[in-house]
Amino acid sequence: MTRFDVVAEVPVDAGAARVFEHGWQSWTPTASYRLAERPHRVLDPNWFVVNYRGPDHAPPAGFHADGLLALDPGDGAPVRIWAAADPTTAVAAIRAELHNGQLRVSADGPVRETVHSGQLSAALGAWAGGYGPGPAEIRPAPTIWCSWYHYFLDVTEADILENLAGLRALDLPVDVVQIDDGYQAELGDWLTLNNRFDSLPGLIGRIRAAGRRAGIWVAPYLVGANSAVARDHPDWLVGSAGGGPVSAGHHWNQDLYALDPTHPGAAAWLTEVFGTFARIGIDFFKLDFSYAGALPGRRHEDLPAVAAYRRGLEVIRAAIGPGGYLLGCGAPILPSIGLVDAMRVGPDIAVEYAPRDGDMSAPGQLPAVANGTARAFQHGRWWVNDPDCLIARPAVERRADWAAHVRRYGGLRGSSDRLSELDSWGLETTRRVLAEVPAPTPFPPD
Q: Helices (DSSP H) in 52-199: which residue ranges?
């Protein structure tokens, strides 16, 4: 049983106070709440391991944050923020409950408290500017076209080439054509193509010859049970207490394992994969399902899980060279500071406005907007915020609302429609959103 120690007891105005909960990774619900409100929680137990720090770390009643909890007492007193003392090695869970007119804050690891004036959004911005290892610089994000939200796992080389031609015909301001999930033979076998793709170097060459940069999707810390990597190198995988998979299957219909970058063989494999991608001309990398790199378990080297996650990112950084651009996704937020150029700050977008089961970690415009707004303070301080791609085809529910959110909070901007299926509104909106990329400096606070 994890022990939580009380770190503060703060008098509050129970009717006016607000608590800000920060979620563990990109998709974990993040928002501020009145004390009487019930916080958003992951509803499907299979997704606990994805959205929290481990399979036994689902939050109880009351407020629960991973690494960052803030309180506006509502009585005129300053905002108080509790955050993980060193996010490069450990991220404490922080909880809060109301007791006799005071908010009792507790944590299961080291935290530091700071006090800030102003409302929550301004206070979080002031705090974030001085937190963590910090990036040496925040580079402007390229604009992208991404295959995922129309083609999903069925994408083909012909689909990429069709939309590459469409970008030119429609004169869309897209820098990077990004091949998403669906090109690889198996999850983890990143250099082996499935039968829908003929040649990755050939395809990348055609993208670059058309005047675009090339990008690719990789889930570097996930290894599918059906992959050659899992079959040939079981010693590269993080061990669970029972010796089985550390994550339930997603849409790949197989058990998933976490790669251990502290193993010399696994680190060399990451170097080979990303070095090969860089050599054939890819310079934009979407690192998805990155939560797996920080899952608890046995590793070759006795490092804390968070430190092992960062080790893997450092290996990838070295392999792609200084010109490579890293987008984190499904990634532990605080442990990624200083190592990625951009970060997805919410769940996946979807054609549907709201998830059918109400799970605010699931794909949908409603949860994507909630997280993207709550994490707006991170843009221009830690990285470029990625709210997720614009999808503007007629089938998208409340598409004008989604476009407005991307225009307000989108630092990294991308399109993910089949371009030939855009109507006149969708095409003009896509063109305008891609042409108005903001500078990588903090957004004005709300």
A: 120-128, 148-151, 157-170
CA angle 305, 311, 317 (to 5 degrees): 145
269/201 Cα distance (integer angstroms): 19
Numbered ranges of CATH 3.20.20.70 in the chain: 144-435
Instruction: Compute, in degrees rounded to 10, the torsion defined by CA atoms 368, 373, 379, 382.
Output: -80
* C-alpha to C-alpha distance for 44 and 36, rounded to whole angstroms: 24
Q: Count the alpha carbons within 13 Å of 128 in the hemisphere toward its beta carbon.
A: 28
- Residue whose pair of structure tokens reads 């549907």 in the numeric block: 352
116: part of which helix (H) or strand (E)?
strand 111-116
Q: What is the DSSP string of 270-331?
A: HHHHHHHHHHTTEEEEEE-SGGGGG--SB-SS---HHHHHHHHHHHHHHHH-TT-EEEE-S-
Question: Which is catalytic among the residues 288, 386, 388, 417?
Answer: 288
Active site residue 288: yes
Cβ pair 95, 119 in contact under 8 A: no
302 is a catalytic site residue: no
CA–CA separation, 138 and 45 (whole Å): 36
pLDDT digits (tens, 9 = 90+) for 80-97: 999 999 999 999 999 999
What is the β-pairing status of strands 144-146 and 176-179? parallel
Please indicate, yes or no, whether the overall pTM of this predicted structure exceeds 0.70.
yes
CATH assignment of 144-435? 3.20.20.70
Cα separation values, 49 from 25, 217, 232, Å: 11, 22, 26
- pLDDT tens figures, 156-213: 999 999 999 999 999 999 999 999 999 999 999 999 999 999 999 999 999 999 999 9
Specify whether the CB–CB gap between 414 and 213 falls below 8 A: no
Report how far residue 369's alpha carbon sits from residue 360's, in angstroms, rounded to the nearest whole number: 10
Of 348, 359, 386, 388, the active-site residue reads: 348
The set of residues, in sequence order, having a beta carbon less than 8 Å from that of 329 and lying 6+ positions away, is 26, 286, 287, 288, 289, 290, 343, 344, 386
